[in-house]
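Title: Prediction job returns without error message
Component: structure pipeline
Severity: low
Priority: P3
Assignee: unassigned

Description:
Job completed but the reporter wants confirmation the result is attached to the right record. Sequence as submitted:
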Amino acid sequence: AGSDAGRRSSEADIDGYMQHLQVALATANAKLAEDSHDEIRKSLESLATEDSFKYYPYDSDDSDQEASQLGEGSFGATHTMRNVDDGHLYAVKLIKIKKAGVPIESLRQEASRLAKLNHPNIVRYYTSFTKKKCFAIVTELLTGGSLLERIDGAAGPLPAGQIKRWTIQIASALAHMHAQRMQHRDLKPDNVLFDARGDARLIDLGLAQIVVAKSKVSSKNAVGAELYRSPEKALGSAYDAKDDIWALGCMVAGAATGKSLEDRSASGAGLFALSRDKVKSLVDEAASSTFGEL
């Protein structure tokens, strides 16, 4: 009996040691990754110019460089570009200054917001510069696709474990933003990308806004995708950081049912939050599926 007790004690000690070792290794790896990120940012900030980044791949016959394009928005497009100094690939968002209709200082503010947000689940910002008639924002290149692609590409609900993983990651990213009184205001599956390991990143802070403590955003600033607007924003009322949480809940429900709000919009979802019947139907459907396990 004494021998068995001793063996169990030794096994417990080994298990405890292994757990501490795993935590220590994870912490060390995260620190190394962050140190590397900081070094890259410092290097790019000191060297970045219009000529530092080249479209990848480059098509001499295409003025729009569609081969390198990752996505397109109202005021520009994001491209894969290679930095000529370090040889690495980056995602470069090119905002057409004239089309954006705002002073270039306002565009610099988006870069400034990204630079302040140091979180593992928010896209990593490196530098910014002007490129011809565009303002360029350089971030890490994420190759795992978007959440919208995952939901719409799945034959039914996403696995509960997968949903739980990215929900916790995006919730953590939002908590980090909200702690700095910053609201994303345009959360949707298209603005959640994954890296090669399957970890989620929050992207596109073009509409993010810093709000004075305990205040709300004016109804005049009801921006962001209509489908993911909270009831307050959809009604034209003032809204706060809970608007981001509403959008996250809609994304989780879409993943749990296997049908995103974009897919549901084909039947006339419009301002989804204003339809009690549609909201109740989604909640009921989600609660009876994978969502219940979460």
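Comment from assignee: result matches the submitted record. The radius of gyration is 22 Å.
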